[in-house]
Write a structure and sequence with these properties.
It comes from Scrofimicrobium canadense. GO terms for molecular function: 5-methyltetrahydropteroyltriglutamate-homocysteine S-methyltransferase activity; zinc ion binding. There is one protein chain. 41% of the residues lie in helices and 15% in strands. It is α/β, with parallel strands linked by helices and 406 residues long. It has one domain: TIM Barrel (Alpha-Beta Barrel). An 8-stranded parallel sheet has the order 1-11-10-9-8-7-5-2. It has a 3-stranded mixed sheet with strand order 3-4-6. It is globular. The mean pLDDT is 91.
Length: 406
């Protein structure tokens, strides 16, 4: 994995805006109407990924991704493709009549945190009027279908063809453009397991079943020479999805099991080929009930990864750069802080971006900081704004490099 030994490197957190052509192709493919079938659709994806990687290189990014283009978005507004792609790649699931918006009567007890329905998030309850007002700017209800599956049998990995296309497209784009490094995202067991389960008898058994399934993606991505990014907002975000609010001690115990399942899935894989992404959820809301970063950072650092990506530009979490004043970054590890945000349409000034980068560099060492976005930009903000933010990210990193290296 590249580090910033000579200059501040730049990357992005995964999802990038889809083109109109890709959205239409996804629709036709999922409806079984794409002309030419799988081979034609795969060729189209290859072209789209190449154009996307070329644009990242032209913008000045050093470490590029496929924008999660192989993870179909239902519409321009789609906060969940990073997760929902796993449904089509996993056997043992059946479509449920429930949706992610269904109310839940699950009430946690001290010492036994349990996830509630999505609409029982404590932040959503506190700002109910805003979240239910489609003109408020904070509603996150995607425009597409919202039905979610449940497990009714043993889980198995059935996404080999789709994964092979993702890997081949990314490798071809890296080779064609001469990109310094390329990555592909994959889901964590903790995040994957937030659907219904009618088959496994315990939470731990359920989590480790997902670990066995997802390890197939992890292994394949690394074996093909690409960087693996684990997407796992659940270790921080799930705190808001437990009612009533759990104690920090109870929540960390709940989350530690999920981290252990992830580490089991990552066993024997090279840490220097793995980056881990944590966030508090990419929806545009108040986030007043987010878990403080200081409460989860030590557990995050136990994850078998060589680099850790997290939100650092979101105004609810920007102040948490101070966490690194009292937290030692392990030897040989990197941080990938977000220095431009997916949560605002305002394009950050490069000077502000540079200031954010420099704060981290002064605390953990300039060579250990790679500048990034808070979260995926695709499906969160307009594409024109997203690319302007990436340009500001690159320009800010150049300013920071000049100051940090003299």
């Amino acid at each position: 994995m590249l580090d910033s030994s000579d200059r501040i490197l730049t990357t992005q957190a995964g999802s990038l805006p889809r083109t109109e052509a890709l959205l239409q192709a996804n629709k036709l493919w999922t409806e079984g109407e794409y002309p030419g079938g799988w081979d034609a659709f795969s060729s189209f994806l290859e072209e789209q990924v190449l154009e996307l990687v070329e644009r990242q290189i032209d913008t000045g990014l050093d470490i590029v991704g496929d924008g999660e283009y192989g993870k179909a978005m239902s519409s321009k507004l789609d906060f969940g493709a990073w997760w929902t792609y796993s449904f089509a790649r996993t056997g043992g699931l059946e479509l449920s009549s429930d949706t992610m918006w269904t109310d839940s009567n699950v009430i946690s007890e001290p010492g036994n945190p349990q996830l509630t329905g999505f609409s029982y998030r404590r932040d959503w309850t506190a700002f109910h009027d805003a979240y239910t007002d489609p003109t408020s700017g904070v509603s996150i209800r995607s425009e597409g279908a919202k039905s979610f599956p449940k497990a009714t049998g043993p889980l198995s990995y059935i996404g080999h063809d789709a994964l092979a296309v993702d890997i081949a497209n990314m490798k071809a784009a890296v080779e064609e453009t001469g990109a310094e490094e390329g990555f592909i995202t994959a889901l964590s067991p903790g995040s994957a397991s937030r659907i219904g389960n009618e088959y496994y008898s315990s939470d731990e058994e359920w989590l480790y079943a997902w670990a066995d399934v997802l390890r197939e993606e992890y292994q394949a991505i690394i074996d093909e020479g690409l960087i693996l990014q684990i997407d796992d907002p659940s270790i921080a975000e799930a705190f808001d999805q437990i009612t009533p609010e759990p104690s920090t001690e109870d929540y960390l115990a709940f989350t530690k099991v999920r981290v252990e399942a992830l580490n089991y899935a990552l066993r024997d894989l090279p840490e220097d080929r793995i980056r881990f992404h944590l966030c508090w959820g990419s929806w545009h809301g108040p986030h007043t009930t987010d878990l403080p970063f200081e409460d989860i950072v030590d557990l995050m650092l136990t994850i078998r990864a060589g680099a850790y990506s997290f939100e650092g530009a979101n105004v609810r979490h920007e102040h948490e750069w101070r966490v690194w004043e009292n937290t030692a970054l392990p030897e040989g590890k990197l941080i990938i802080p977000g220095v431009v945000s997916h949560a605002t349409n305002v394009v950050e000034h490069p000077r502000l971006v540079a200031d954010r980068i420099i704060r981290y560099a002064q605390l953990v060492g300039r060579e250990n900081v790679i500048a990034s976005t808070d979260c995926g930009l695709g499906g969160r903000i307009h594409g024109q704004i997203a690319w302007a933010k990436l340009a500001a990210l690159v320009e800010g990193a150049q300013l920071a490099t000049t100051e940090l290296w003299g």
